[in-house]
Amino acid sequence: DHTAAFTSKPEAKISLENQKRMSQSALIPIKSRLLRQLSDSSHKKIVGLVDQQRRIYSLIENAVIKRESNAALILGPHGSGKSVVLRQTLEEIKNRYPNRSFKKVFVNCIVYPTDFHVLREILRQTNPEKMHHIKDSPDDLKNMFYEESDPMIIVLEEFEVLLRGKQSVLYNILDIMNTLPSASILLLIVSCHLDALDLFEKRVKSRFSQLQIIFPPLLSVKDLEIYLRNSLILDDDNSQLTKGFNYQTEPSKISTYDTTNVLYHTRCSFL
Predict the structure, then answer these.
(1) 244-248: which pairs have CB atoms within 8 A and are 24 or more residues apart?
(2) What pLDDT band is residue 269 in, cutting at 50, 70 and 90?
(3) What is the pLDDT of residue 73?
(4) Which of 87-101, 165-179, 254-268 has the least mean pLDDT?
(5) Which of 217, 231, 220 is nearest to 260 (CA)?
(6) pLDDT digit string, tens, across residues 161-203
């Protein structure tokens, strides 16, 4: 009896260690999925941006369905949801109107920091097979829109990089919108500078003064808490592990501090 009692203790310890190891192993795919969702804008949940999403949806829908040309400024600090709303709205339009074709062009002006580079990237994304024929001039851009039958959504992100320059690519696109009625172009300028309009040249400033969509920063701790909780919710795949994880992230189960802690350690575990 004494021998049995002695040997049962290490066996129990081993069993507990195995359970802990198995539990940690089961969380690896959860961490991987959570990191993927945090990195992928299409998975992020939109919080408190109903008006901004509605206005962007209307602009894109009118461009795709009614072939209306327009230009708008989308302003807000980093992390306020500008790119997330844009990409999710484009996907929503695509799913709602599967028989309506349109082209979308995303150019990050940090990666393409001059008018020349932006122009070339727009041409590359729209007509890659004709890149060896073009001369990187405004005429190439005009010819491209002249030949293009589908509506085109052009998104220039981090545009503040180009605001100190001549802004020629912006002027050329706006000029084509005015002089080529057959072209259907929606030009969306995205910047984290709320005073971006003041930096525009006079010849383009008037085109954006009436169409500005402002994304505010998170205004309260409650907004932050909602955002963090939504970031932790995994897409339901009907597995017990996912359901159990999502259940544990409910407000009654986890505090704001714990939510922040989970997000922090999820990120750090993959650095």
Answers:
(1) 245/30
(2) very low
(3) 94
(4) 254-268
(5) 231
(6) 888 777 888 888 888 888 887 889 999 999 999 888 888 888 7
DSSP string, 254-266: --HHHHHHHHHHH
Amino acid code (one letter) for 159: F
Residues 6+ apart with CB under 8 A from 201: 166, 167, 171
Tokens of 257: 């501090």
Q: Which helix (H) or strand (E) holds 144?
A: helix 138-147
> Could you give phi then psi for residue 244, rounded to 5 degrees?
-65, -40
Are 156 and 121 spatial neighbours (Cβ–Cβ below 8 Å)? no
* Beta carbons within 8 Å of 124's beta carbon, 6+ residues apart: 131
What is the tens place of the pLDDT at every residue in 4-32? 443 444 444 445 455 455 466 767 777 78
Contact status, residue 183 vs residue 63, Cβ threshold 8 Å: no
Report, in angstroms and rounded to the nearest whole number, the Rg of the chain calculated over CA atoms. Answer: 25
Cβ(148)–Cβ(69) below 8 Å: no
- Within 10 angstroms of residue 199's Cβ, the number of other Cβ atoms is 15
> Residue 19's Cα: distance from chain center in Å?
39
- Residues contacting residue 188 through CB under 8 Å, at least 6 positions apart: 56, 59, 71, 72, 74, 86, 153, 154, 155, 156
Q: Which amino acid is at 5?
A: A
Residue 93 tokens read as: 């339009």
Residue where the block lists tokens 């500078």: 193
Q: Are strands 212-214 and 152-157 parallel, antiparallel or unpaired?
A: unpaired
Beta bridge partners, 185, equal 152
pLDDT at 165 (0 to 100): 76
Q: Answer whether 0.70 is exceeded by the pTM.
A: yes
